[in-house]
Amino acid sequence: SKLKYLPPQARSPALLVLDLEQNLFQSHALQKLPRGLTILNLVGNPLLDMKLPMLPHLRSLSLDNCGLTSFEGFPQFQQLRFLSVSNNRITNFKGLPILMKLEYFNIDNNPFKFGSKLSIAAIGSISLNMFNDVELSESDLEDAFKLSPLVGFSLRCGRDPTPCESPEEEVRKSQNFLTSKLASYLKSKQIENPTL
User: Residue 6: which residues within 8 A CB-CB, separation 6 or more?
Assistant: First the structure.
């Protein structure tokens, strides 16, 4: 029978690797995972969201086929090297924290076809060498890091990840996204000529 709740052995503080593939876990049932985990496989669980507990030593996380629609609630896993979120329903990077040490990222087979350049910009990792099971070239990384940090920030805030023709257009699209509500906000606060 499939598990819905963590059995006692899955809560052991000495546990480093945990494979819970193809069960019935939702994220709220995983809040008592051992903080020392380095590898966690949750493939095929109906998690529904990314609200996982903070696991400071986590290096590998597999979340394929989990019914995920966004990165909102995703913890800042400082040590994460491997992240797979394929076969979900993700359409943007909203809520994704910067993952400085990430080396492998798979976001294939989601409703939106994510490109490597904007994905690298959103993730912010200079260590990334595999994207959707394809090895990245030096020029892939260079192209992504030529973009303004504003592009990555706007993507993590929920900007549409459809790529533009040039880096300048990427910056303009990001600025427009980030300031789209600013004018109406200033007007609502009755701020006439703001000096920024």
Answer: 29, 30, 32, 33
